[in-house]
Amino acid sequence: MAPGAGERKRNAIRVGARVLLEGRAMQDSLQLEVHDLEVQVLTGIYSEETHLPQPLRIDLTVDLRCPDRFAPETPLSASKNYLDLKHAATSALPEGLHFTLIEAVADHICETLFLGDERVLRVRVKIVKLAIAEAGESIGITLVRNRR
């Protein structure tokens, strides 16, 4: 019979930045999130889409290497500025460049974040194409990239 949640919790032992649970090391993690950015981007494959920027809603979740502890006096350099995430999804997108697929927009955002900080381990980008929704639905993609 598998141990219950209470028993598993009792078996957990905290060791620095790792938790040992039933003999397995579990990594601590830090996720930074920026959601609901509305950005105008040249994107699309259909003729009615290709000549004007389209409104996109972008959500970002970035996994960072996590330090052992955040003390009250821990400086921002121990984490990441949220504005870096916003920059990757807004002003870092090349103005005037047409992205055929929104997947390419997501990839560009991932690359910007990976190149800008070696602590970035994983980037999740969700993009919703606002102009094609007919009844408030969300139509788009989610791309997840891991540092290679």
Query: Ranges with pLDDT <50 over ≥5 residues?
Result: 8-19
Give the biggest beta sheet: 4 strands, antiparallel
Number of E-state strands: 7
User: What structural class do helix, strand and pairing data support?
Assistant: alpha+beta
Strand order of the largest sheet: 4-5-6-7
Report strand %.
Answer: 25-35%
**Helix proportion range:** 10-25%
Mean pLDDT: 86
Radius of gyration: 20 Å
Q: Counting H and I runs of at least 4 residues, what is the number of helices?
A: 4
Keywords summarizing the entry:
148 residues, alpha+beta, 34% strand, 4 helices, single chain, three-stranded antiparallel β-sheet, elongated, four-stranded antiparallel β-sheet
Report on the architecture of this protein.
The protein has 148 residues and is α+β, with helices and mostly antiparallel strands. Helices cover 23% and strands 34% of the residues. It has four helices and seven strands, in the order αββββαβααββ. It has helices at 5-11, 47-50, 82-89, 102-116, and strands at residues 13-15, 18-21, 24-27, 30-41, 54-64, 120-129, 140-146. The strands form two sheets. Strands 4-5-6-7 form a four-stranded antiparallel β-sheet, covered by helices on one side. The protein has a three-stranded antiparallel β-sheet with strand order 1-2-3. It is elongated and about 50 Å long. Mean pLDDT is 86; it is low at 8-19.
